[in-house]
Specification:
The complex is a heterodimer. Chain A is an all-alpha fold. Chain A contains nine helices and no strands. The radius of gyration of chain A is 17 Å and the shape is globular. By secondary structure, chain B is an all-alpha fold. In chain B, 55% of the residues lie in helices and 1% in strands. Chain B is built from 14 helices and two strands. Chain B has a two-stranded antiparallel sheet with strand order 1-2. The radius of gyration of chain B is 21 Å and the shape is globular. Classes of the chains: A mainly alpha, B mainly alpha. The interface between A and B is medium-sized, with 33 and 37 residues.
Chain lengths: 192, 336
């Protein structure tokens, strides 16, 4: 149990996918203008990351034993098609949930955070449950980064930002500053 | 015109005497004893480092500030420069101190639109930048030298060259000793300040007195330092009660490192702290918990800077979450 909590916290805060490993930057920059949208994007991210983790555990256990050279291509193809299937099923079963997540799902499937999770999970040899904790932690970390960014951006909308820094320039500067802050977690708990 | 004529003007008719320059300059004045004690303990090096970081903070404000010379006159950039200088070790090369000030004001304040609109504390952002860029220079504390006039370390190192740091002379801060060698420092030394460390990390007592003066003039939100210090004291007292061999005592936790300076002068920055009272308590408790966590279990020996910066990043969210209801609030909820 302690091991699982540690995997979760490590993926969420200490090795935050966005702010420490710089994965998944496109949603971090692109879908962080409003806190509400950022929360939905985070939820969609957690959803896809969990599907990824389950798929990767399955592929690693039953298929890739014999053919490790197929790893990257099978991760991408299987995860992307699985998410498309899930999306179609959601559209049929729950139109409300589809409207909440639907637009973001295709955006996320080809994200580097997803492939990053798949490869980290394989390299670190996580089993099924550990992989789930890792995926939930990574998703929570992405959501945390998105919400922090969105709340700062909403506030700076009211500020008289100079014209050279307006728009994406300020977003990049905020991202850099947030990443500097998260350096404080570097090395946390690494001895235990 | 006859004096008995009544002049009709728009409100407000009664104005408080405090405006931004008054408050900022009173903060500068209250930093003077802290600066004096830094000079007393570290000699002329302290003055040089402070001058360099103030110059670094003023340069972009003067060149790029959207209000030109007016933004210099309100004193806020001087506070940033002095606070940054107080977080630096006395032996740091002066060009690094200058760069830290310029980065803090340029990327921490001016890009957000200047005074009152920044998200992160500019002084701490400048220091975080220096910590990331020059991790060795910023964690090298020279041992207290016998000769007061001697420069500490290599202040005049040429930019982009590595400074000469004699190994035999480098001392360790009380926090570093605690973390890496498990030895504690006598409490009296910590409270009075005769320890190795950054310029403003010495005398907790002087900082507390200056903070009390500012709080009495209502230029400082007393809830923030109170909640930070109380959280650190309680959290470390619990850990100390569990295992007194591994964890430092609460007195050590309170008076070592930059906690006093951070809690009194940096976390209370009016721009980057929450606007509601409830938000201030949340903010302070969060900083306290993060400080103890990073100090005890993190890779660095000091966590005050990162704790404040991380909570700065959360402030817009705290403000959203603690926004009081305009109408229809219950009696118990009416004091946010």
């Amino acid at each position: 149990m302690g091991e699982l909590v540690w995997i979760f916290l490590s993926a969420m805060v200490i090795n935050n996918f966005t702010l420490a490993l710089f994965l998944g930057l496109c949603p971090f920059m692109g879908v962080s203008a409003r806190v509400e949208t950022a929360l939905r994007m985070g939820a969609a991210n957690i959803f896809v990351l969990v599907i990824t983790s389950v798929t990767v555990s399955f592929l690693n256990a039953f298929i890739l034993e014999q053919a490790p050279y197929l790893r990257i291509i099978s991760f991408i193809v299987v995860i992307a098609s699985l998410v498309q299937i899930v999306e179609t099923v959601i559209k049929k079963v729950s139109p409300t949930l589809f409207r909440e997540l639907g637009i973001y799902l295709p955006l996320i499937t080809t994200n580097c955070a997803i492939l990053g999770l798949a490869i980290f999970q394989t390299n670190r040899g996580y089993d099924f449950i550990e992989g789930l904790a890792f995926a939930l932690g990574a998703g929570a970390g992405l959501t945390l980064a998105l919400v922090l960014m969105a709340s700062i951006r909403e506030e700076s909308e009211l500020a008289s930002v100079p014209s050279i820094a307006r728009g994406m320039g300020l977003v990049l500067i905020i991202a850099g500053s947030l990443s500097l802050c998260f350096m404080g977690f570097a090395g946390l708990l690494s001895s235990s | 015109m006859n004096a008995s004529h009544r002049i009709v003007t728009a409100s407000p008719h009664i104005k408080a005497a405090d405006d931004t320059p008054t408050i900022m300059w009173s903060v500068v004045a209250s930093l003077a004893p802290v600066v004096a004690s830094a000079v007393y303990f570290f000699g002329p090096s302290a003055l040089l480092v402070l001058a360099a970081s103030v110059a670094g903070a003023l340069a972009p404000e003067a060149l790029l500030g959207n209000r030109g010379a007016r933004s210099l006159r309100d004193g806020s950039a001087i506070i940033t420069g002095v606070l940054l200088g107080l977080t630096l070790p006395p032996g740091i090369p002066l060009w690094m101190a200058f760069l830290g000030g310029a980065f803090g004001i340029g990327f921490g304040k001016l890009v957000y639109g200047g005074l009152g609109q920044n998200v992160f504390n500019p002084a701490l952002l400048g220091r975080a930048f220096l910590q990331a860029a020059f991790p060795v220079a910023i964690t090298t504390w020279p041992a207290a030298s016998k000769n007061w006039w001697a420069l500490q370390g290599d202040n005049f190192a040429f930019p982009l060259m590595s400074p000469k740091v004699p190994d035999a002379l480098s001392g360790a801060t009380p926090l570093g000793l605690m973390k890496f060698e498990q030895t504690s420092t006598p409490s009296l030394d910590l409270i009075l300040g005769s320890t190795s460390g950054s310029l403003g990390e010495t005398s907790g007592l002087i900082i507390l007195v200056c903070g009390a003066y500012l709080a009495a003039r209502k230029h400082l939100e007393w809830r923030i330092p109170a909640s930070i210090l109380a959280t650190v004291a309680v959290f470390s007292a619990i850990l100390y009660a569990i295992d007194s061999a591994h964890y430092p005592s609460p007195v050590f936790a309170l008076f070592s490192g930059g906690l006093m300076l951070g809690a009194v002068f940096m976390a209370t920055d009016m721009v980057t702290s929450p606007v509601t009272h409830r938000g201030c308590w949340i903010f302070g408790v969060g900083i306290g918990l993060l400080v103890v966590t990073i100090r005890l279990w993190g890779g660095l020996s000091e966590g005050v800077m990162y704790a404040i910066l991380l909570m700065n990043a959360l402030v817009p969210f705290i403000n959203r979450a603690t926004q009081p209801r305009t109408f229809g609030a219950l009696e118990a909820e009416s004091k946010p």
